[in-house]
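Hello again,

I reread your note about wanting to compare the complex against the isolated chains. To keep things tidy I'm splitting this into two emails, and this first one only covers the full assembly. Below are the input lines as submitted, including protein chains and any nucleic acid or small-molecule components. They are followed by the predicted structure of everything together. The single-chain runs will come separately.
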Amino acid sequence: MKRENMVIVRHKQLAKNIYEITLSGHLVEEMNEPGQFVHVKVSSQANPLLRRPLSLCHINKKACECTIIYRKEGIGTTLLAEKRPGETVDVLGPLGNGFPLDAAAKGKRALLVGGGIGIPPLYELAKRLVEKGVAVTNVLGFQTKETVFYEQEFAAFGETYVATADGSYGAKGFVTDVINEREISFDVLYACGPKPMLKALEQAFPHKNVYLSLEERMGCGIGACFACVCRVPGSETAYKKVCSDGPVFKAGEVVL
Amino acid sequence: MNRLAVELPGLSLKNPIMPASGCFGFGREYARFYDLSVLGAIMIKATTLEPRFGNPTPRVAETPSGMLNAIGLQNPGLEKVMKEELPWLAQFDVPIIANIAGSTMEEYVEVAKHISQAPNVCALELNISCPNVKKGGIAFGTVPEIAAELTKLVKEVSEVPVYVKLSPNVTNIVEMAKAIEAAGADGLTMINTLLGMRIDVKTAKPILANQTGGLSGPAIKPIAIRMIYEVSQAVSLPIIGMGGIQSAEDVIEFFYAGASAVAIGTANFIDPFVCPNIIAELPTLLDKLGIGHISECTGRSWKKGERSVYCGA
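Full-complex prediction:
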């Protein structure tokens, strides 16, 4: 975990309010696990004050580059979207614990399920799983056609299904509808997306090996401020921190 | 001569910089970034008698140049802090200031009695901004008589000097400080966070699950400076200043207002290295200002006969 002013090498819009930024720096040497995130300060000023937790989408150690996909939404990501190649951003990371690659052995089947801006960390995961000989199926959910991104990129790793909530592209409905209708079988499920989606997956596959990546408002991102805690089942006081114990948890490990 | 060394009741500080309570946990996370022995002291996370889970999330909301938090004093409780956190911190050459909190006076007294016996706890910081459950939830720190009574009770049982952390959510902070001084406090720390709120424009509901939270960060610095300026002239207790410090210049400003040491809170979240960086920058800044020892800065904004000393480029 280090802090570095990383250089923006590429920055482009992928879909409505969805941007892809590629950063270069030594910090990439520290990046190993798919599902980890970095904490980005978009302004050198006090406003906005806090860093933004953004998940790593692609780690390219050879080129010393990493790619992040984010949604322009608040003041922080709006400022980030204005940054040009050649400029730098202050990055702290890599942070958190990523998806366990060991959970899927060579020759097994993994189902990767992403919802909206939760999709990006699954890209590096898919790449790594395919590299080790795991068969990957991807189910990607979006709100509407305008926000769809990375369908082709995921298709390069395995069968890929897209669903939109309004039916404007791909199957109409939620990712769980696609999994049921297509009767997709798998040994391990990895997911990242909005909490209702994660809950639905946890409930749908209670006896399967399921790993979920959570999103939560964060302060420090390193486990010190206790902003992003979640409860542990069956205890009044036990907790896990999303930033430093997660963001990836085994289903059932924390209360969603 | 160590021009940053500061002597305060119970505290021999190699420098006047310490992380503020609640922004540093019990130090474990930051020890992965640097050697905690470089710090002047550490104010550990508020400890209550029993473990507390705290509030539901969202617990933080960003504001212009600041942040709101409503963590809810989540902590592992007195026993675990005594058995695990304080012994772990003993590996570092740094005095610990134990922040204590409670829902009743009895709880404060019980925590103070035990935690002040830990070998590396050199002082207590009394968090009086908690709601008093026996008085309808009114914070101990908003009524001078109650704050004074609590100070007195804790002083009676504490083995180490007691610093009282003043809440800015009062009409007259000077009156509060005087009452606490009369009750026997050894020092003051100020200011705690300011009560604030944010509402989501889309949902029309408060962003924080707790509805309200404490405002911290650079946004509150001018308030902290004003309050320290007023209180330091009205009482003779040493003040550890805090509220939005981000740089060595901010530290000097707090000293000029009347502080004898400072704590850094929210800035740790943005830059984990902020405390060691400021410690490293202070001597150069003192040179630039033509000041020999940092203690000479205390109260310079109001002391009679003190001229501006700025002679740098």
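For quick reference: The radius of gyration of chain B is 19 Å.

B.
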